[in-house]
Amino acid sequence: MSKTEAENSTLVRLEQKWNYIKQNRPRKARPDGSSALLLHRFDMTQRTLPDFLAPGLDIVSIGINPSLYSVERGFYFARPGNRFWPALNASGLVVPPLAPSREAVESLFHTHRIGFTDLVKRATARAAELADADYRQGTRVLQKKLARYAPAIAWFHGVSAYRLFLAHGGTPRAKVAIGLQPERVGLTRIFVTPNPSGANPSANPKQLVPLYRELAALRDRLNSN
Asked: Staple 216 to which of 49, 93, 101, 175, CB 3.0 to 4.6 Å?
């Protein structure tokens, strides 16, 4: 290689390096704060809600996955429009009523023996952002959790959540009805209620409260045995 060719080659490499630095340098936040929001959302997706699991629980509540909103607030079913807490309080499943908070989740766990986990632990803004791989891995992990802790009842929030659990667990079933299911995980019975999200039109208190009462009756029957 001649001296001129070597110099040209060096110039090309320097130009490429400079272009790379310009493209990847830290950018100033936009006036509307959108850059900060993107970074904040990325941070939320790296976090999740903790499981509340232990041997001897009466019920374990199982959602599809944590929302970014709930992760930010630090407790399950945190969005104000969610019907979980109003239906829970109106049903008599627990007494006295609980205000939505992390302290309420801890009270359900320690006092009322109701635990919490999810089919998939990865937090997203919407469940539609989850992939099949998330559900496959989540189902395997959830099966192990249920086998390890053996709650009396696994409470799935949403027919779609339980259908996905069955499909990725190797026992798919096209039709899933609300209420007590024929399957078990070990000795754990399965109970399904509608997803209490405010975005779900069927998740109205008139439908949820009787089902939560039915769940309470099942719990009481199992405890009496």
From this structure: 93
The secondary structure of residue 30, as a DSSP letter, is: P
Q: What's the structural domain count of the chain? A: 2
What is each CA distance from 114 to 25, 54, 130, 139, 193, in whole angstroms? 48, 10, 26, 20, 15
Domain hosting residue 37, numbered range: 3-43
* Whether residues 90 and 184 fall in one domain: yes
Beta pairing class for 153-157 and 188-193: parallel
Name the strand (E) or helix (H) holding 190.
strand 188-193
Q: How far apart are CA 53 and CA 84, in angstroms?
A: 19
Residues 134 and 96 in one domain: yes
Q: For 37-91, write each residue's pLDDT tens digit.
A: 443 444 445 589 999 999 999 999 999 999 999 999 999 999 999 999 999 999 9
